[in-house]
Amino acid sequence: MAHRGHLGLYDGDQLIPGGEPRAEVVGSAATALLPAMSTDPWTALRGFRINAPPDEQVVVAVGGRLYQTTPAAAAASVAVIGDARVLFLDGEAWTFSLPVAEQSRDGGTEDGALLAPMPGRILLIDTTEGSTVSKGQKLIVMEAMKMELVLSAPFEGVVETLKVKIGDQVTEGTVLAMIASAPQVPNDP
Questions:
Q1: CA–CA separation, 155 vs 134, rounded Å?
Q2: Among the listed residues 119, 107, 77, 69, the one whose alpha carbon sits nearest the alpha carbon of residue 94
Q3: Of 37, 51, 101, 104, which is least surrounded by CB within 10 A?
Q4: 93 contacts 87 by C-beta, under 8 angstroms
Q5: Residue 6 CB: number of other CB atoms within 10 A?
Q6: Which domains does the chain have, with CATH numbers?
Q7: The pLDDT of residue 93
Q8: What are the start-end ranges of the E strands in the chain?
Q9: Nearest-angstrom CA–CA distance, 41 and 124
Q10: Sign of the CA dihedral 170, 173, 178, 181?
Q11: End-to-end CA, the chain
């Protein structure tokens, strides 16, 4: 196979250009995930809220990493190749999708993204950035539909980022925190 450098490397199901995607790429991918414009709040699916401006933030996975951004118009082309969506912009090709929590063998998420399971309000944050957490430890409590939902650490690790604060209203799928897995320490014989 001749490598011409235009699309980076092909690794299994993903095209991987070098480095991080530009903001224009992430914004274009977010736009491509949204349905066509509609003024009907029941079909628009664009962050409709009563008595508040719409929540225009979209969480999108681009090149295997999660980004939260505002949709942006750009001269990008999108193609569906098998099960993958590919965004072409300025000679680069990036795979993108809605965020999906990958399940590992032990039931935790592999990517470390703690996502809101439904729309709600953040009631309690029981951790800080840089804190070490153990699997199952309570991290965030949110209120949704008059219920309290406890969101726990999917695996042992370190809280890399907290993206919310107490009182924030979040939509389903919003990235609340990122957990980095703890480095494995080899056992001495």
A1: 6
A2: 77
A3: 51
A4: yes
A5: 9
A6: 9-97 (no CATH), 113-181 (2.40.50.100)
A7: 86
A8: 9-11, 14-16, 58-62, 65-69, 77-81, 84-89, 92-97, 113-115, 120-125, 132-133, 138-144, 147-152, 157-162, 169-170, 175-181
A9: 30
A10: positive
A11: 45
Please state, in angstroms and rounded to a whole number, the distance separating the CA atoms of residues 20 and 148. 37
At 107-159, the pLDDT tens digits run 345 678 888 888 999 999 999 999 999 988 999 999 988 888 899 888 899 99
Q: Average pLDDT in the 63-76 region?
A: 80
- pLDDT band (50, 70, 90) for residue 104: very low
Strand duo 77-81 + 65-69: pairing: unpaired
Cα 1 to Cα 128: distance, rounded to the nearest angstrom: 48
Is the distance from CB of 113 to CB of 101 less than 8 angstroms?
A: yes
Q: Which tokens sit at 113?
A: 């993204």
Q: What is the pLDDT of residue 122?
A: 94
Specify the length of the chain in residues.
189
Question: CA separation (Å) from 185 to 21, 48, 153, 156, 179?
Answer: 33, 47, 20, 13, 18
Averaged pLDDT, 6-33? 68
